[in-house]
């Protein structure tokens, strides 16, 4: 019996031990997430997405009438799957949040958001949800239209 | 000099049989002066070669010295610099952003700097504050036709939606605000509507099938991406009415991008805006090789521009997208034969 085989046996028996304990309900430090809790978390996420949607379409982030959605309907062309990357107008490797703030400050002539503010997280959530399922590809040079939207706002509402 | 060329233009159009009233000369216009007999007289397969220019989607705000004012001015200067000088300009809608009279007035003042006459149709951004009242006051009819050097030109209002505001009790400002969102999912799909379909049928009834036709609408005459109203819901009926013609060239605003399609006898070209470029929606393009490159957000003129269409005697046409920045790939840099 070689080493690898030995290890496999150990891992297997380890796993079946965990499985057995799990079945008995005694291995967990806390109980598994209940369906109600999962639903609550999902609702919290989509409340943030909806808040992001409202901000995305609001000219109030800027001073010249423009909103993010003027150029990025349905969160398109934010290319969230390509960040962080070198972005010419940032002059460095930056993040989606930095780009959002750049858009607010320069084309929209507005006041930038705190990077960890609820508003910024909501905007990031909105744009990212519009690109769900698209493979992460850092620095990829492409403009993506996002996930096609058939009807409604493009995300579940709670 | 300028006045002479306008008169010459008007003269030629009148000779061709249509009462051509350009906003550059008279405003508002009157559809009643377009006679069917006049339209029929103009039918001819031969085109007296000429060029016309196109601008669209300025999205002017009622804000002093807004950056889009300058971009529209740049478009007007570009068109004025074209040689040979275009006979006229067509404007494909969305001159304003929020349908305010002040926006449209500002736009009209800038367009009046054109050294040639122009004809214009409304876009959704011009319209839904007062249902086109201010626009009509400044520019006249929402649909029109005229003949020029052997070509029958048609313009129509393609942004009409069924009433979504009355039941919801929306104010005009709220209604406009919803329409301002490209992805408004409560506003419904646009079309030209029954009345304009009937008008179109009457308009082309006596126009012979070998007449070259150019039609301008704000939205595309095919289902490109309905979510963003990159469509006209009654485009199938429009295409049916125009089916008898040998060849129809369609141009449309609204998409803020270079895009091309052919359906039957209709060749459609999308146009660059003078405000912001829109990304290509997440659908397969019918002509993926006819596409502008992605624009640089750091350059406010990137992906924007004007256009011209040069027609020869056989109604072969070349559309030139005149991007202010250098973003056209080699295959369409020097124009596209359509
Ligand atoms: Fe537009
Ligand atoms: Fe539009």
Describe this structure in words.
The complex is a heterodimer of chains A (158) and B (338). With 158 residues, chain A is mainly alpha-helical. Chain A has 2 domains: 1-29; 33-146, Cytochrome Bc1 Complex, Chain D, domain 2 (Orthogonal Bundle). In chain A, 44% of the residues lie in helices and 4% in strands. Chain A has a two-stranded antiparallel ribbon. Chain A is globular. In chain A, 34% of the residues are buried. Mean pLDDT of chain A is 88; it is low at 1-15. Chain B is an alpha/beta fold and 338 residues long. Chain B folds into 2 domains: 1-42, no CATH class; 46-337, Purple Acid Phosphatase, chain A, domain 2 (4-Layer Sandwich). Helix content of chain B is 27%, strand content 17%. Chain B has helices at 2-15, 36-41, 67-81, 101-111, 124-127, 133-139, 172-180, 193-205, 235-241, 330-333; strands spanning 50-55, 89-91, 118-120, 144-148, 151-155, 213-217, 248-252, 260-263, 266-270, 305-311, 317-323, 336-337. Chain B has a 6-stranded mixed beta sheet. A 6-stranded mixed beta sheet of chain B has the order 4-5-6-7-9-8. The longest helix of chain B is centred in the first third of the chain and has 15 residues, at 67-81. The A-B interface holds A 57, 64-65, 69-74, 76-77, 88-89, 102-103, 106-107, 142-154 and B 61, 63, 66-67, 97-98, 181-183, 185, 227-228, 275-283, 294, 296-298, 300.
Order of neighbouring strands in the sheet with most strands of chain B? 3-2-1-10-11-12
Which strands sit side by side, in order, in the main sheet of chain A? 1-2
What's the level 1 CATH class of the largest domain in chain B? Alpha Beta
Which parts of chain B are unreliable, with pLDDT below 50 for 5 consecutive residues or more?
A: 1-44
Secondary-structure element string of chain A: HHHEEHH
Q: How much beta of chain B, percentage-wise?
A: 15-25%
């Amino acid at each position: 019996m070689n080493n690898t085989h030995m290890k496999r046996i150990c891992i297997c028996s380890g796993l079946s031990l965990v499985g057995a304990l799990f079945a008995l309900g005694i291995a967990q430090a806390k109980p598994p997430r209940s369906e109600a809790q999962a639903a609550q978390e999902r609702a919290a996420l989509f409340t943030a997405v909806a808040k992001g949607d409202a901000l995305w379409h609001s000219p109030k982030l800027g001073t010249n009438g423009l909103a993010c959605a003027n150029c990025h309907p349905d969160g398109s062309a934010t290319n969230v799957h390509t960040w962080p990357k070198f972005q010419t107008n940032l002059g460095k490797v930056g993040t989606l949040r930095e780009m959002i703030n750049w858009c607010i400050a320069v084309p929209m002539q507005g006041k930038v958001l705190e990077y960890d503010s609820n508003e910024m997280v909501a905007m990031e959530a909105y744009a990212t949800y519009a690109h769900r399922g698209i493979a992460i590809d850092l620095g990829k040079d492409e403009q993506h239209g996002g996930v096609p939207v058939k009807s409604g706002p493009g995300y579940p509402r709670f | 000099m300028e006045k002479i060329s306008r008169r010459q233009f008007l003269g030629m159009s009148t000779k061709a049989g249509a009462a051509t009233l350009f906003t550059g000369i008279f405003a508002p216009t009157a559809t009643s002066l377009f006679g069917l007999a006049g339209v029929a007289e103009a039918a001819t397969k031969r085109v007296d070669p000429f060029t016309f220019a196109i601008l669209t989607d300025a999205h002017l705000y009622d804000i002093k010295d807004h950056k889009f004012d300058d971009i529209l001015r740049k478009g007007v200067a570009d068109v004025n610099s074209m040689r040979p000088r275009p006979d006229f300009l067509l404007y494909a809608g969305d001159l304003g952003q929020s349908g305010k009279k002040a926006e449209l007035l500002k736009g009209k003042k800038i367009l009046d700097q054109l050294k040639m006459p122009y004809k214009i149709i409304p876009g959704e951004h011009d319209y839904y504050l007062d249902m086109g009242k201010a626009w009509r006051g400044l520019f006249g009819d929402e649909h029109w036709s005229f003949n020029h050097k052997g070509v029958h030109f048609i313009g129509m209002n393609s942004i009409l939606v069924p009433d979504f505001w009355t039941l919801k009790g929306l104010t005009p400002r709220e209604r406009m605000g919803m329409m301002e969102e490209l992805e408004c999912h409560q506003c419904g799909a646009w079309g030209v509507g029954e009345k304009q379909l009937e008008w179109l049928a009457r308009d082309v009834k006596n126009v012979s099938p070998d007449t070259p036709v150019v039609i301008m609408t704000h939205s595309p005459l095919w289902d490109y991406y309905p979510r963003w109203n990159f469509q006209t819901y009654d485009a199938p009926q429009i295409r049916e009415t125009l089916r008898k013609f040998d060849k129809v060239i369609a141009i449309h605003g609204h998409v803020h991008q270079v895009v091309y399609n052919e359906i039957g006898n209709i060749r459609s070209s999308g146009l660059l805006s003078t405000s912001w470029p829109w990304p290509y929606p997440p659908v397969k393009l019918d002509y993926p090789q006819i596409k502008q490159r992605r624009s640089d957000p750091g350059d406010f003129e990137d992906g924007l521009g004007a256009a011209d269409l040069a027609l020869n005697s056989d109604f072969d046409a070349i559309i030139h997208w005149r991007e202010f920045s250098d973003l056209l790939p080699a295959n369409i840099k020097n124009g596209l034969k359509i």
